[in-house]
Design the sequence.
């Protein structure tokens, strides 16, 4: 399941003007889970409600500011995996389209993958 190009306004960044003025952040979320039970039964309870996942990501991005988009991505991955036990792995990409320095490019993106291990702890996913 992929939630692509979710756009939110947040106040994250290492510079005071970013925390004061805010900016857009683009989040992509790739969720790994078994979709067969939902596909066979047509039952929302057997999958992940993507509207609820969207609302969770929105609360994080629009919530308390952090300095790094790495932290923002980590917070999203931890919250999603912590909230939905049927998700085995999450890949989170956070893009800051307009970093606060003079450069002509499409922004900076951080991507990370996290999974739940056998003990239930959230850990980096291996390639």
Sequence:
């Amino acid at each position: 399941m992929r939630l692509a190009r979710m756009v939110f306004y947040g106040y994250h960044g290492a510079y005071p003007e970013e925390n004061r003025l805010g900016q857009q952040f683009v989040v992509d979320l790739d969720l790994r889970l078994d979709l067969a039970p939902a596909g066979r039964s047509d039952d929302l309870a057997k999958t992940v409600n993507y509207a609820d996942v969207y609302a969770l990501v929105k609360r994080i991005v629009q919530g308390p500011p952090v300095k790094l988009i790495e932290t923002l991505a980590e917070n999203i991955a931890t919250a999603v995996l912590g909230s939905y036990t049927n998700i085995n792995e999450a890949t989170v990409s956070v893009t800051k389209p307009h970093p606060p320095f003079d450069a002509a490019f499409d922004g900076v993106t951080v991507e990370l993958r996290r999974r739940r291990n056998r003990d239930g702890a959230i850990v980096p996913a291996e390639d």
